[in-house]
């Protein structure tokens, strides 16, 4: 008994005493929330490119009992150096354990992000769940700007991305996902892209990367279609203008779920054919066209038309991806898995990818049409 | 004499000795050495370690459960055994100590960057000392308790189902790896711990079930390694996995609960338990050897001296690279010992049996 008491006394002491070594008093910490990075091109050929880094963290105003987010900007060679410079001006100790989001300006993204992400994956204090987003324009300006209806810009962007990702309007891209796809030889990375639209910040689409370099983007209304191609998912909304399919009216498809299957085959000449089959199910909650949703045959016709419409949209996206030679839907993974290791390592997938035939096959099912018959 | 260890406790004890800090880098080791689908190679190592356990069971059967020191001392003069004893003693003591140091250094990296590592090391040593002087029965009781304190962590695997992708596993088996030869030694070293079963002979009850328990302990270890490594291969891309220093630590940091995130510091603390048992059992093994060398002294003094000496030795390597290098070499030596010691004992027993038959 005595021994056990001794053991636990020491265990408890160990736990408590170790706190004395590295004290972190919450009032004296500045929890970095969002960081933004922009490229500062070299002034002349002798100097190097630099980074403009902005960091935001909450400051608690004890008298007003209010929290305000301050933005600090510095120019430095690396993000850690900028953090040190900013820290020199602050009475708080800046810590990055609760950092939620990082924003990268377009010019920096074009040059390549990995050097700047490397420090994030290396630092054990930084979460793998930190968001990676591209800003169409200047990231520092966007972060610094005050949006009247959204007091804390960093937090606002973070929540906006969170919410939009839940309905698959933008992909949720964290450090984990970006690094995972960056190091995978069968898929290219993506990131959401946002921009300042005056009074608010809005999702601008999806940035497509080749390696760690930004190549091109998909528009925001293509996002949900891209989501169909990229993965299976359970939640989403889609609004279709039926004018596109030669009918009149508007059609809103919600609580979508998508089941994607990819099959790789080869034709007689040996070139790859990739079939992406998508089963899309959802309920119709708004429909202003002429078809009778309660009629099974008419509903079937509508399903077919919508399928065709989606297929056409997907074709446009696939063409754009192939034209820019970015495999952001991960076709490469399936091609890789269809062959032997030695054949795959010999294959120059990057140069082959633009010529591969990718055929989307969409099957739309109207699960229900709400609680109103017509 | 004191109470004997029962098979259930032995199985858990063996598992707790085997698992330690190495599990954090284990998936990367597999990916580096065996390439795509390296997780499947865990099965190969399970077979190898089971074979070595089979050798140990031969020793147990041939020696009829006698302590290995008795077996050695009956056949070999004591002065010739002394160098072997000194070698084993220092190997086990330093091995135990280095495991502690590695745990401390990783812990420091993620949680307490400016505290002196030897301060933590000293705290762990005090805990270990109390367990070691309690004797093997107390240790096994503690290890059973500790086992239940970490067993729940298996449920954490549910967090990774959503991002797990079969396509990431690829159909390639054991391709794209580098350095399978040395890597295999490192991986085999990760299974080490079962060889301490050799020293448990005098402390176990019923003869038949003891070896079975050692096999089961080894299987639990393999199963843990297999599940975590498999998850890592489907959760991370291959290229990413080969670059991560501690894939398991990254897995833990991925967990986010609705009310809290970044709980890996907390979760990492739980890994103190298996690490502690590893440390304690290796030092206990060293104390067992010391008892043979200086039988007159009090066991507590043996332990105390060993702890002080190994603490001093562990002061030498002080960056993570050095500690890992030491552990790697010690692992190689211990891997050879795990094979050589049972073989030596089997030869001794056979020769003795032959001699007895001739008489």
CATH architecture of chain B: Up-down Bundle
Q: Total number of helical segments of chain A? A: 12
Class from secondary-structure proportions of chain B: mainly alpha
Shape of chain A: globular
The helix content of chain A is: 25-40%
Q: Radius of gyration of chain B in whole Å, from Cα?
A: 21 Å
Number of strands of chain B: 0
CATH homology superfamily of chain B: Amino acid/polyamine transporter I
Describe what you observe in this structure.
Chain A has helices spanning 2-21, 79-88, 106-111, 114-122, 139-144, 153-166, 175-183, 223-230, 296-323, 331-337, 341-346, 349-352; strands spanning 29-31, 34-40, 50-61, 66-76, 93-95, 101-105, 131-135, 190-196, 201-210, 213-219, 238-241, 250-266, 272-287, 357-368. Chain A has 374 residues and is an alpha/beta fold. Chain A has two domains: 27-230; 233-374, 2-Layer Sandwich (GMP Synthetase, Chain A, domain 3). In chain A, the strands form three sheets. In chain A, strands 4-3-2-6-7-8-9-10 form an eight-stranded mixed β-sheet. Chain A has a four-stranded mixed β-sheet with strand order 11-12-13-14, sandwiched between helices. In chain A, strand 11 (238-241) and strand 12 (250-266) form a beta hairpin. With 359 residues, chain B is mainly alpha-helical. Chain B has a single domain, classed as Amino acid/polyamine transporter I (Up-down Bundle).
């Amino acid at each position: 008994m005595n021994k056990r008491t001794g053991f636990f006394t020491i265990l408890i002491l160990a736990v408590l005493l170790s706190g004395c070594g590295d004290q972190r008093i919450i009032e004296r910490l500045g929890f970095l929330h969002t960081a933004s990075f922009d490229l500062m091109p070299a002034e002349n050929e002798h100097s190097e490119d630099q980074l403009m880094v902005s960091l935001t963290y909450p400051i608690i105003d004890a008298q007003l009992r209010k929290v305000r987010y301050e933005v600090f900007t510095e120019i430095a060679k690396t993000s850690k150096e900028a953090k040190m410079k900013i820290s020199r001006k602050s009475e708080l100790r800046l810590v990055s354990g609760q950092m939620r989001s990082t924003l990268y300006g377009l010019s920096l993204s074009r040059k390549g992000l990995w050097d700047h992400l490397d420090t994030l994956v290396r630092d054990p204090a930084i979460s793998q769940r930190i968001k990676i987003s591209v800003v169409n324009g200047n990231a520092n300006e966007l972060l610094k700007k005050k949006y009247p209806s959204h007091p804390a810009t960093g937090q606002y962007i973070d929540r906006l991305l969170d919410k939009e990702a839940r309905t698959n309007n933008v992909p949720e891209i964290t450090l984990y996902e970006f690094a995972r796809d960056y190091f995978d030889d069968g898929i290219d990375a993506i990131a959401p892209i946002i921009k300042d639209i005056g009074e608010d910040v809005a999702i601008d689409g999806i940035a497509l990367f080749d390696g760690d370099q930004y190549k091109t983007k998909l528009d925001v209304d293509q996002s949900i279609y891209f989501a169909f191609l990229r993965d299976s998912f359970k939640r989403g909304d889609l609004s279709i203008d039926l004018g596109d399919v030669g009918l009149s009216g508007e059609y809103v498809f919600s609580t979508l779920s998508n089941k994607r299957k990819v099959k790789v085959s080869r034709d007689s000449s040996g070139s790859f054919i990739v079939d992406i089959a998508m089963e899309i199910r959802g309920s119709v909650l708004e429909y202003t066209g002429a078809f009778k949703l309660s009629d099974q045959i008419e509903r079937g016709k509508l399903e077919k038309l919508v399928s065709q419409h989606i297929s056409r949209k997907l074709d446009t996206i696939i063409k754009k991806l192939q034209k820019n030679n970015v495999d952001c839907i991960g076709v490469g993974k399936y091609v890789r898995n269809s062959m032997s290791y030695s054949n795959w390592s010999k294959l120059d997938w990057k140069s082959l990818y633009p010529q591969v035939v990718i055929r989307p096959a969409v099957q739309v099912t109207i699960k229900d049409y709400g609680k109103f018959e017509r | 004499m004191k109470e004997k260890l029962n098979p259930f406790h032995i199985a858990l004890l063996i598992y707790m000795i085997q698992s330690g800090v190495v599990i954090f880098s284990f998936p990367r080791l597999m990916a580096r050495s065996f390439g795509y689908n390296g997780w499947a190679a865990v099965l190969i190592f399970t077979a190898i370690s089971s074979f070595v356990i089979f050798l140990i069971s031969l020793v147990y059967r041939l020696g009829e459960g006698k302590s290995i020191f008795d077996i050695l001392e009956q056949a070999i003069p004591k002065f010739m055994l002394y160098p072997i004893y000194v070698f084993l003693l220092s190997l086990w003591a330093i091995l135990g100590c280095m495991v502690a140091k590695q745990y401390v250094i990783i812990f420091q990296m993620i949680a307490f960057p400016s505290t002196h590592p030897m301060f933590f090391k000293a705290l762990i040593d005090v805990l270990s000392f109390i367990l070691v002087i309690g004797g093997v029965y107390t240790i096994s009781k503690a290890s059973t308790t500790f086992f239940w304190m970490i067993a729940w962590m298996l449920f954490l695997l549910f967090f990774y189902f959503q991002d797990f992708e079969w396509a990431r596993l690829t159909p390639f088996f054991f391709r794209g790896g580098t350095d399978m030869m040395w890597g295999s030694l490192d991986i085999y070293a990760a299974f080490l711990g079962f060889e301490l079963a050799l020293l448990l002979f005098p402390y176990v009850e019923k003869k038949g079930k003891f070896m079975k328990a050692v096999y089961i302990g080894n299987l639990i270890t393999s199963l843990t390694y297999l599940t975590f490594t498999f998850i890592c291969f489907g959760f991370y891309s291959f290229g990413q996995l080969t670059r991560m220093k501690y894939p398991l630590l990254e897995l833990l940091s991925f967990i986010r609960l609705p009310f809290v995130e970044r709980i890996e510091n907390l979760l990492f603390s739980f890994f103190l338990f298996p690490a502690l048992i590893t440390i304690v059992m290796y030092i206990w093994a060293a104390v067992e050897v010391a008892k043979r060398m200086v039988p007159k002294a009090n066991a507590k003094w043996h332990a105390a001296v060993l702890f002080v000496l190994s603490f001093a030795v562990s002061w030498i390597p002080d960056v993570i690279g050095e500690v890992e290098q030491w552990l790697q070499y010690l692992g190689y030596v211990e891997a050879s010992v795990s094979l050589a010691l049972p073989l030596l004992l089997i030869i001794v027993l056979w020769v003795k049996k032959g001699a007895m038959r001739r008489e």
